[in-house]
Amino acid sequence: MAEERRLGLASEKPTSRSRVVARDEADGGQTIIVVKRDAETDRMSDAEILAKADKYLRNRRHLRAVDDAE
């Protein structure tokens, strides 16, 4: 399973306006997510942020794959 880790940028600068979360993929690649810091994202774990991003990307791929002939 992919290893999750925080790059530490947000924790080193708690006044930062963004949070960076990264995941090493099984194929050797890396997924890097940058989110705006707010009350919601500060409460979310890295795993929750990555899961939300994965869901968003799946939905975007689905929208492009669906042929809307209207």
Please explain how this structure is put together:
This protein is of the alpha+beta class and 70 residues long. It has one domain. Helix content is 41%, strand content 26%. The protein has three helices and three strands; from the N terminus they run E-H-E-E-H-H. It has helices at 9-12, 39-43, 46-65; strands at 3-6, 18-24, 30-36. It has a three-stranded antiparallel beta sheet. The longest helix has 20 residues, at 46-65. It is globular and about 40 Å long. The model has no long low-confidence stretch (mean pLDDT 78). Residues 1-24 are annotated as: Disordered.
List its traits.
70 residues, alpha+beta, three-stranded antiparallel beta sheet, 3 helices, 41% helix
